[in-house]
Amino acid sequence: MNDWLPPLFFALLGAALGSFLNVCVARWPRGESVLRPPSRCPHCQRYIAWHDNVPVLGWLVLGGRCRWCHERISLRYPVVEALVALGWLAAALAYGPSFTALRVAVFGTVMLGIALTDLEHYLIPDGFTVFGFLWVIATAMAAAWRADPSPFAGPWDAVVGACAGAGAIAIVGWLGEVILRREAMGFGDVTMMAVIGGAVGPERALLTIFVAALIGAFAFVVVVFPLTRWRTRREPQLELGLAPAHRELPHVPFGVFLAPAALLTLVWGQNFLAWYMGQLLGAM
């Protein structure tokens, strides 16, 4: 009769954590505490009252503006809150109100936080990766003790996966640096892959890097390259009839692609590997 209550609770909890995620994304790259001071307007620095800080609703009631200075508040804040709420709701609907649903929801929230900070600041804060690593290892041991079925790796595979993921992305970064003659991967990508490898195990950790590369290639062909060409055409001609100023292709942080790839391989990676091995053995 009240089957809707647990998913609703997950969604509300997700919205609240989405609000906290916004604080982490805004403050961790600047080296600030996420606990103090309380939330405040980025323009006038006035503290935001609790009733104005209700996820999504607070932004809508105020029309997306600060109550005091009336400056616009970024649309990113309610969007992130809504995305996290929907992610937690999806986890509850897919796995029921269970420990597995909690693990998936928290992992997805961490991945979203990493993607946002890497996209905006080209930085993956240790706050996300340290918490994420401890979370996946601790919950792997707890799930093994409880004998919970889940898409996550077991304790031993979690440790091996963390090493495999971090090592593989470090090698990819080294090869990229040799080929491109510039830094291809930051250390944040290495720590991020340690978290992902701890969640999915060694085989799916390698699959995650492959899927992330596919997503990145698709984004480059469909979005980055056309946008760069469009901007180049709009540049004014240089004096003396020279061609438009040369514009290098923008650097897109790899963590933005690793995050969705990690969620895809967590949920569907094992099925894909089973299908692939079946096809490979069938062809032999």
Q: What are the SSEs and their pairings?
A:
Layout: H1 5-27, H2 57-61, H3 76-95, H4 99-121, H5 126-146, H6 155-180, H7 187-234, H8 255-283
Helix pairs in contact: 1-3, 1-4, 3-4, 4-5, 4-8, 5-6, 5-7, 6-7, 7-8
Name some characteristics of this structure.
8 helices, 0% strand, globular
Quickly give the structural class: mainly alpha
Query: How much beta, percentage-wise?
Result: under 5%
The biggest beta sheet reads: none
What order do the SSEs take from the amino end to the carboxyl end, as H and E? HHHHHHHH
Global Rg: 21 Å
Q: Provide the helix percentage.
A: 55-70%
Short description:
The chain has 284 residues and is an all-alpha fold. Helices cover 69% and strands 0% of the residues. The chain has 8 helices and no strands.
Structural description of this entry:
It is a single chain. By secondary structure, the protein is mainly alpha-helical. Helices cover 69% and strands 0% of the residues. The chain is built from 8 helices and no strands. Helix 5 crosses helix 7, helix 6 (155-180) packs across helix 7 and helix 7 (187-234) crosses helix 8. It is globular and about 70 Å long. The N and C termini lie far apart (53 Å). Mean pLDDT is 87; it is low at 237-246.
